[in-house]
Amino acid sequence: HGAYESQADARTILEANVHFLPNGTIPTEETGARHRTAERLAVETQKPVVAVSEGRRVATLFYDGKKVELAQPTEVAAHVNQDLQSLDRLRARLDDSESRLTRLEVTGMVTYRHAVTVIQRAEMVERLGRLVASRAATLGDEGRVVAVQLNDLLLGVDHTMRLVLLDYLRPLRSGSVEKALDTLDTLTPSDLEDPSRVGKELGFPDLDDPAEPRGHRILSKVARLPESVREEIVRDFGSVAKLMAADESDFLRVEGVGETRARQLKAFFDRLHSSAQEWEAILD
User: With contact defined as beta carbons under 8 Å apart, do 202 and 230 qualify?
Assistant: First the structure.
């Protein structure tokens, strides 16, 4: 047994080969002396206690009235690799749905259903990411490679979800996005898979109703555009449709937009317009 400096740190061993004597009246169903001691010590100290069975080569965690056999590192690594593959596929689906959302916003054909699809997939990616992170934490140094892969797969997901909510929540008030994120976090997996339930919880109208995005997400794709200027542009124009129809003089009226940035914005939306014509040609 070892005693550690603190539960939060647990990096410095203060003592080794210590014989613990917890309260013997604490009930336990464990038969081995080591595991009886561990369970009683966990109850008495309200701290996590690990008992290692040398013969079975199994580590058991006692904490908060629970007993959990810790999986072997090879078993954990196999689960993590499977989860990473699932996460990679789910992230690809999220990216596809976001690209489709952009096309539909630019062509004026977007509905709330398309926004909900992006929100659903982003929340699923984040949930699976948290699961992978918790499992990888038990792998020690081997988990560092997983952490790098995980960071790549989660990059920008939370940002995208927040921007979609900024674009589609009606009405949009201070704290609306955080409240929506909290709501999503409380949904069960089956509720999250139901677009109608997600839309209802977020306060959206019928999912097949036409939507008018404000433009936060599309403007976030403009290089080196400060968030404060983006918000001013959205406040001035109010919708993607108006942004698509704007010219340089319209952008110049916005505080923080000079001639160079006005040309940049006009060129950006011209490229989107050209792409939209290509998308419509493909659909035809």
Answer: no
What tokens were used for 88? 């990679």
Distance separating alpha carbons of residues 52 and 57, to the nearest angstrom? 7
pLDDT by residue (tens digit) across 130-161?
Answer: 999 988 887 877 788 899 999 999 999 999 99
How many Å is the maximal CA-CA distance in the chain?
82
Model pTM score: 0.79
Cβ–Cβ under 8 Å, residues 71 and 240: no
Q: Does the structure show a pLDDT above 90 at 281?
A: no
Could you write out the DSSP letters of every residue in the chain? -EEES-TTT--SEEEES------TTS-----SHHHHHHHHHHHHH-S-EEEEETTTTEEEEEETTEEEEEPPHHHHHHHHHHHHHHHHHHHHHHHHHHHHHHHHHHHT--BHHHHHHHHHHHHHHHHHHHHHHHHHGGGGGGHHHHHHHHHHHHTTHHHHHHHHHHHH-SS--TTHHHHHHHHHHHS-HHHHT-HHHHHHHTT---TTSB----SHHHHTTSTT--HHHHHHHHHHH-SHHHHHH--HHHHHTSTT--HHHHHHHHHHHHHHHHHHHHHHHHH-
Which residues does residue 16 pair with via DSSP β-bridges, in sequence order? 2
